[in-house]
């Protein structure tokens, strides 16, 4: 009986050691998962910051060239308006004379298609 009791004791002790090892493995697994999760989050944050920096650089390049483009368009528009105003003032008087001459210079004639009733 003592040998059976010793065998049972050994089994219980072995079971306890196995249970302790399983719990220790679960704890280390949880710690490993937490560590891995923290590393993944840090890597994601680093990647996000890198991409945001690249985006800001591209945005600055594009917006900077758009600013130059809008200044160039504004300058061209001002020049076109100046040219049109100059042309208007230069040609206004002569065009008004031509228009008034055309309107006021009336020559009454019988139209060639008019048939005189005989």
Strand content: under 5%
- Average pLDDT level: 86
Count of DSSP strands:
0
Radius of gyration, rounded? 49 Å
Order of helices and strands: H
The structure class reads mainly alpha
> Which term fits the overall shape?
rod-shaped
Which stretches of 5+ consecutive residues score pLDDT under 50? none
Helical segment tally?
Answer: 1
Give the biggest beta sheet. Answer: none
Q: Determine the N-to-C terminus distance.
A: 159 Å
Residues in helices, as a percent range: over 70%
Topology:
Blueprint: H1 2-104
Keywords: Hydrogen ion transport, Ion transport, Transport
Family: Belongs to the V-ATPase G subunit family.
GO molecular function: ATP hydrolysis activity; proton-transporting ATPase activity, rotational mechanism
């Amino acid at each position: 009986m003592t040998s059976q009791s010793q065998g049972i004791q050994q089994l219980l002790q072995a079971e306890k050691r196995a249970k302790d090892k399983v719990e220790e493995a679960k704890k280390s697994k949880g710690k490993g998962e937490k560590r891995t999760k923290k590393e993944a989050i840090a890597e994601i944050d680093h990647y996000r910051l890198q991409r945001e920096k690249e985006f800001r650089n591209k945005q600055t390049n594009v917006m900077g060239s758009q600013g130059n483009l809008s200044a160039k368009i504004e300058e061209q528009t001002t020049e076109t308006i100046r040219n049109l105003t100059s042309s208007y003032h230069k040609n206004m008087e002569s065009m008004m004379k031509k228009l008034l001459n055309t309107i006021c210079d009336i020559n009454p004639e019988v139209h060639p298609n008019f048939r005189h009733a005989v």
